Amino acid sequence: MSILYLIATPIGNLEDISARALKTLREVTLILAEDTRHTGKLLAHYGIKTPLSSYYEHNKIIKLPEILARLQGGDLALVSDAGTPLLNDPGYELVRSVLTAGHDVSPIPGPSAPLSALIVSGLSADAFLYLGYLPRKDSDRRQKIKEITELPYTIIFLEAPHRLLTTLSALSTELGDRQIAVARELTKLYEEVQRGTISEMVEHFKEHKPRGEFTLVIDGFHPDIETWSIDELKREIEARMMINQPATTAAKEISIKSGWPRRKVYNLIIEYQQKDKE
After folding, report:
1. How far is CA 204 from the centre of its chain?
2. 114-224 has which fold?
3. 8 Å CB contact between 240 and 252
4. φ and ψ at 80, to 5 degrees?
5. In this structure, what are the phi and psi dihedrals at residue 189, rounded to the nearest 5 degrees?
6. Could you tell me the pTM of the whole model?
7. H-type helices in the chain, by residue range?
């Protein structure tokens, strides 16, 4: 039986590819590529003349019979536009079908934007959760963030530049003012990693227009280390309400000090105000 190789390719710098990856790309009978034009530039750079065939989100199912037939005649390789195949890229159905047909699947590891961002973030890499892209719809995005509010793991996900500020604001509201690293254009000429609190990142990207592709790495929930008790939180809320501080301002400031998510603090403030009126 033949082998389907899952080959990681550079996420920016073309030199970030292993000797084994280049050797395999030369030896397989066909390379399946998300964008043949993009991958063609990589192959041309290294003088690799192996035939290319497109394999992307909208043809991944109809191409399966053809790919399985090609595997009968030799090994194939699957690459994405950049990074490690299957991470936010098509390939799951292909791997399952190849295994079911009795062929082997072998990884050739290499570049990965999520892992690259994690190891330079300054946050814990002992246990982490990768979420890919958050939902585009605002309500769905907030719901997804709420689901991770009390998870202790470092959280990693990707974001497009035009949604970055909206996402950072939602994170601040739902998670509180946690530590975060915002990485962009990793391994490229304008590589940049901003580290600080979520509120600091909001202010930074209000002043500096987001450009490029972003990877966000967020500290997990650590109640024993960061979070006030509910009694401490309520005392602080009462003190702020005694001086008639606006609810939104109080929620933001208390969230930063207490480690509680801003949304939870805000809801408690509203409850306090409603009881005060009764």
Report:
1. 20
2. 3.30.950
3. no
4. -100, 180
5. -60, -40
6. 0.80
7. 19-27, 36-45, 64-71, 92-100, 113-120, 138-147, 164-175, 198-207, 223-226, 230-242, 247-258, 262-277
For residues 228 and 258, what is the distance between their CA atoms, to the nearest angstrom?
5
214-218/104-108 β-pairing: unpaired
Bridge partner list, 104: 3
User: Six-digit token pair at 187?
Assistant: 């391994």
Query: Which residue(s) pair with 33 in the sheet?
Result: 54, 79
Q: What is the pLDDT of residues 7-59, one digit of tens each?
A: 999 999 999 999 999 999 999 999 999 999 999 999 999 999 999 999 999 99
Query: What separation, in Å, do the N-terminal and C-terminal C-alpha atoms of the chain show?
Result: 75
Helix H segments across 28-123? 36-45, 64-71, 92-100, 113-120
Q: How far apart are CA 54 and CA 60, in angstroms?
A: 9
Distance CA 93, CA 202 (A): 38
The two three-digit tokens of residue 32, written as one number: 């399946």
Q: Which CATH class name applies to 3-111?
A: alpha beta
Residue with tokens 């035939």: 51
